[in-house]
Design brief:
binds zinc ion, 5-stranded antiparallel beta sheet, 4-stranded parallel beta sheet, Rossmann fold
């Protein structure tokens, strides 16, 4: 199959071995899963399903960022312990993914379970001279990595802007370079519950080191594919690569695949803008297969504006499919299955899948019900998670 690889900006052959290691950056559990999240993870679910169809064992790791600043803020607002908030939102997220018929993940590690390994990694970076202390905190020294910025290919100005917008602190004085990023936050306040006692002292890891450590621990490096939303290209994934290299892992992942956002009112869905469509709300009115099919109106690399009418179009197509599969010919069912497989192999071309389904429902019926045709349609629907 072919996938679009972010750093090379090329369609590359994705032909992994029998066991495929995939790591996708997961949610920060402080608010319910919105449609943008579902779209991202559905993309990797489709990939997983096609790889399994091709006979691979897929080890998909989808982490839970339960150690991160937005959770503490939200927990304080709600006056509840941050761990309880993370637990509650993680459970809700997992129940939505189950209802949406996602294939199970190989592992869903929580950052809070890997604190000691993260502290060891930060300590190694300090010892090797790739990190430095700034007051109670520890930063990665990006000047030690001449390739920092090559992964994203973004200009210095853009890197600076994204670092500022996406949780970084380019303005903090005392840093050796504005793009140096936090590895460890020292916490002296003993009443702060989001801190652990480690050889680095009391504190918590920065966001980027969490993923490097969990991916390395669970999959080893290099693993086959790293994914996430395209807003993670910089700084998050650029930083993951720099850290892992400095920790003696020359290549973190062989292929990188990023998903564009679903927009609402012209903007990426986000808590701060208040333009969220929650999966759990849609599930009250629509079958999971209908929501999945509606999201397949968008290609993962372009995303686009959320159009609620896609749900009704998808519901109609699902109804027509269910009617057609009872009377379809072997020929039309074979064509459907081969088109679905070919479309998935072609960089997960979900537009082509919609066309294939429309062609299938408008094809002439067969002379008599054919068990092979029924099996073909079931396989095609299973590949798309539409059962
Ligand atoms: Zn990550």
């Amino acid at each position: 199959m072919k996938l679009f690889d972010t750093p090379s900006q090329l369609y590359v052959a994705f032909e992994p071995g029998p066991v495929v290691g995939i790591y996708t950056c997961g949610i920060t559990p402080y608010d319910s899963a919105h449609l943008g999240h579902i779209f991202t993870f559905q993309t990797y679910d489709l990939l997983q399903r096609r790889l399994e169809d091709r006979g691979h064992e897929v080890r998909l790791v989808r982490n839970i960022t339960d150690v991160d600043e937005p959770i503490y803020k939200k927990a304080a607002e709600l006056n509840m312990p941050f761990a309880a908030l993370a637990e509650q939102e993680t459970a809700l997220f997992q129940s939505v993914l189950t209802r949406m018929n996602f294939r199970p993940a190989f592992a869903e590690p929580r950052a809070s379970q890997y604190i000691s390994q993260m502290a060891v990694a930060v300590d190694q970076l300090l010892t090797a001279g790739f990190a430095y202390r700034l007051e109670a905190d520890i930063y990665f020294d990006t000047t030690k990595d001449p390739n920092f910025g090559l992964f994203s290919g973004f200009s210095d100005r853009l890197q600076y802007a994204f670092m500022q917008k996406r949780g970084g602190d380019p303005h903090r004085s005392g840093k050796r370079h504005p793009l140096d990023f936090l590895l460890w936050r020292g916490v002296s306040d003993t009443s702060d519950p989001a801190a652990w006692d480690t050889e680095l002292g009391r504190g918590r890891p920065g966001w980027h080191i969490e993923c490097s450590v969990m991916a390395g621990e669970l999959l080893g490096t290099p693993f086959d594919l790293h994914g996430g939303g395209d807003d993670l290209i910089f700084p998050h994934h650029e930083c993951e690569i720099a850290q892992s290299k400095a920790l003696g892992q020359p290549q973190l992942a062989k292929t990188w695949m990023h998903v564009a956002p679903i927009l609402y009112a012209g903007e990426k869905m986000s808590k701060s803008l208040g333009n969220l469509v929650f999966a759990k709300d849609l599930l009250e009115d629509y079958a999971p297969a209908v929501i999945r099919l509606a999201l397949m109106k968008y290609h993962y690399r372009t995303g686009g504006e959320w159009q609620p009418e896609f749900l009704d179009e998808a519901a109609e197509l699902m109804t027509e499919c269910m009617a057609a599969e009872k009377t379809c010919s072997l020929e039309s069912s074979t064509l459907l299955l081969s088109e679905v497989r070919a479309a998935l192999d072609d960089d997960l071309d979900t537009h082509r899948i919609w066309h294939a389904l429309c062609d299938f429902v408008s094809a002439s019926p067969g002379a008599a019900p054919d068990p092979n045709a029924v099996a073909n349609v079931a396989t095609a629907k299973n590949l798309l998670g539409l059962l």
